[in-house]
Write a structure and sequence with these properties.
Carbonic_anhydrase (chains A, B); homodimer; zinc ion binding (chains A, B); Beta-carbonic Anhydrase, Chain A
């Protein structure tokens, strides 16, 4: 069974008792959470986020740089005024370099020049030190002129072994 | 109370009974879910995704284009072979244009030229038709030479009023 078949079946059960259809578009807690796509991260459960409270932005690593487009939309159109950024232990982003991954993709393409050209345009935004990556992303947001002045911005590490979060910045 | 204070408190409770610290890095269902950052979306609950099963990529709109970096990492380094893409009803991305948002940001900056220059570099990736946006993003992934051949790719609309999902592509 493909995952989409299993998830569609699960969704039927979910929808059969769903009773939160009246929530407004703007997040009620005026907050955007940025975190990794990692399969061991479940922000709603791990942070106790209720439906309707928070924007949740997720990408490989929990990159603030890639999240910027979404944060501008979140702040300017939907009134969020806080950003909580998480990276996590045992993150895949600590295990490779952009050059490594470009080589993997090129080697798999059997010499296709269009693949090489496309992958050479992507910065995969890996990082070498977990806590430094959190500090650096918080600094990026605090100094970015598209992020609203006065935004509360904090940076955290989520430990996938314990489920605990710890503030870094 | 800031949202991060409430969420840190919730996390203490979560971690106190956490017993899934041994999950591996690669997603067990070999799938990446792409969806919107919207506060009314909770993929784990709405699709019944168990911890460790799936990468979850979220951004404003559920843009496949912005998700590409994460999808390449997901497939090439962490062995996912399926992408399930969701957009949703009442999405903020249906309500503005990139030019509108650039104007809002510029007007709020009181003539700061560096703000104007920065915001003019961002394509906010809005869309005018919900179902078309799903089809277009699925097409983008199916035709992209960085996405592995043979990847199962499906596109869905999530209805925030009913909690139901519906396949579009």
């Amino acid at each position: 069974m493909s995952a989409h078949e299993a998830y569609a079946s699960n969704n039927e059960k979910y929808a059969s008792t769903f009773d939160k259809g009246g929530l407004p578009l703007p997040p009620s807690k005026q907050v955007a959470v940025v975190t990794c796509m990692d399969a061991r991260i479940d922000p709603a459960a791990q942070l106790g986020i209720n439906l309707g409270e928070a924007h949740v932005i997720r990408n490989a690593g929990g990159s603030a740089k890639e999240a910027l487009r979404s944060i501008v939309i979140s702040q300017r159109l939907l009134q969020t005024r806080e950003v909580i950024l998480f990276h996590h232990t045992d993150c895949g982003m600590l295990t490779f370099s952009t050059n490594d991954l470009r080589t993997i993709v090129k080697n798999a393409s059997e010499g296709d020049a269009s693949v090489a050209e496309a992958v050479d345009q992507i910065d995969f935004l890996e990082f070498g030190d977990l806590e430094e990556s959190v500090k650096s992303d918080v600094k990026f947001l605090k100094e970015n002129n598209l992020v609203l002045p006065g935004t509360k911005i904090t940076g955290w590490v989520h430990d996938v072994k314990t489920g605990k979060i710890r503030q870094i910045a």
